[in-house]
């Protein structure tokens, strides 16, 4: 449930774009920056998140983080100007930044190594339920009580979830008097400094960072910030209608997360399914940018957006790819580096899209399909970077292959 809150905030910006522009009198570049404000602290906190998960433990880390996210959501809801809105979004990003890596740490303790792909996919599936809530349901909620009260309510719910997390979650089976599932042979006490050095200097760590970066960054930029404005401007839809199309991306990502994790564990391969899904994802973007002139049927767009989400889900394997080439006891740090790539790319992409749009022929903040396609070329570039990096990933055969 904490991860549902994470995904809700990740993609909520696109739904309230016009409300923010009207309330704070901001430009599209400033709106792009607002969307990115979530990702800057999230990206910077990935290494500290791994350290906290490995030392303080996931239970305490997530509980404190989600309370902080709730406070940030309340700040945003009551923001008198764009500066306070930025502060609120930054606080949210800081708070939720610790949740996913902590969840992966728990998965590494409560499940066997050959179950990690499936459980990562299931985690992504559940988390994306938050992305669904942040689309059409959020449109309905904002229409009913306004965007300020909507985010204030989410802030209150976040605090409740943080309390429940602290009551229910345990870091490892031993905390409940159960036998450990994962036994780490080396009993020497872990050193944070040594762990960072080992993981950072391991050349096998970094291909997963870039492979995650372009795939995740591009789908989140579209699904979370620019997909709704695209459908409103190009197809003349209402915000509610447009949000249903970005929901198709989310549904595809949810289903794909379950499929790719299961395929990977059953095949005993990481790189092969990751590459296969990502190549098709590139093809979907090529069709979207070069075949779609902005007047294709809405039925076709439903299918295209669903496939965009489905095939982007290969990125869930990047966490396993990073974890399985590093020492098991540093699972938090190694998965956090792979995860950091996605949020670095997402933070960079969104303001660039806003900047390119503002340089185009937009009248009154409404842009043509040509303007959007030009802006979305940045997504195509980062996807190609990811594909190149993918082929540098070391195949682990779903086992930890780290050796001194």
TrEMBL record:
Membrane topology type: Multi-pass membrane protein
Keyword DNA damage applies: no
Domain of life from the UniProt record: Bacteria
Domain Major facilitator superfamily (MFS) profile: from-to ranges: 1-397
A Pfam cross-reference name: MFS_1
Gene3D superfamilies membership: MFS general substrate transporter like domains (1.20.1250.20)
Transmembrane segments: 61-79, 85-104, 125-145, 151-169, 206-230, 242-260, 272-291, 297-321, 333-355, 375-393
Cellular localisation: Cell membrane
Any one GO molecular-function label of the UniProt entry: glucose 6-phosphate:phosphate antiporter activity
Signal peptide interval: none
Keywords: Membrane, Transmembrane, Transmembrane helix, Transport
A single GO cellular-component term on record: plasma membrane
GO biological process, one term: phosphate ion transmembrane transport
Transport among keywords: yes
The name this protein goes by in its record: MFS transporter
Source organism: Anaeromonas frigoriresistens
């Amino acid at each position: 449930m904490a991860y549902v809150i994470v995904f809700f905030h990740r993609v909520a910006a696109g739904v309230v774009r016009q409300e923010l522009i009207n309330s704070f009198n901001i430009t599209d570049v400033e709106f792009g920056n607002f969307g990115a404000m979530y990702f800057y602290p999230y990206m910077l906190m990935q290494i500290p998140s791994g350290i906290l998960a490995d030392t303080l433990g996931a239970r305490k880390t997530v509980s404190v983080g989600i309370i902080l996210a709730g406070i940030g959501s309340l700040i945003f809801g009551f923001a008198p100007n764009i500066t306070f809105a930025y502060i609120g979004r930054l606080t949210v990003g800081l708070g939720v930044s610790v949740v996913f890596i902590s969840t992966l740490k728990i998965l590494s303790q409560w499940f066997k190594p050959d179950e990690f792909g499936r459980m990562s996919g299931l985690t992504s599936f559940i988390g994306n339920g938050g992305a669904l809530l942040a689309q059409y349901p959020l449109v309905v909620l904002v229409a009913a009580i306004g965007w300020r009260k909507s985010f204030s309510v989410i802030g209150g719910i976040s605090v409740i979830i943080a309390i429940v997390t602290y009551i229910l979650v345990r870091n490892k089976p031993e905390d409940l008097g159960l036998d450990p599932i994962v036994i780490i042979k080396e009993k020497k006490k872990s050193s944070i400094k040594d762990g960072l050095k080992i993981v950072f200097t391991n050349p096998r760590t970094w291909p997963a960072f870039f492979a995650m970066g372009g795939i995740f960054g591009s789908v989140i930029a579209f699904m979370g910030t620019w997909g709704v404005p695209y459908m409103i401007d190009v197809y003349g839809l209402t915000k509610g209608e447009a949000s249903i199309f970005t929901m198709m991306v989310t549904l595809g990502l949810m289903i794909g997360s379950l499929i790719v994790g299961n395929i990977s564990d059953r095949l005993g391969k990481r790189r092969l399914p990751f590459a296969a899904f990502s190549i098709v994802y590139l093809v979907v973007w090529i069709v979207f940018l070069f075949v779609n002139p902005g007047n294709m049927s809405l039925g076709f767009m439903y299918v295209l957006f669903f496939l965009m989400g489905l095939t982007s889900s290969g990125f869930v394997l990047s966490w396993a790819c990073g974890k399985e080439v590093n020492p098991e006891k540093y699972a938090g740090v190694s998965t956090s580096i792979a995860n950091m790539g996605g949020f670095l790319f997402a933070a960079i992409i969104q303001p660039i899209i806003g900047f390119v749009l503002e340089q185009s022929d937009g009248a009154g903040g409404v842009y043509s399909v040509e303007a959007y396609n030009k802006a979305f070329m940045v997504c195509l570039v980062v996807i190609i970077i990811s594909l190149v990096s993918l082929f540098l990933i070391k195949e682990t055969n779903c086992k930890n292959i780290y050796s001194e």
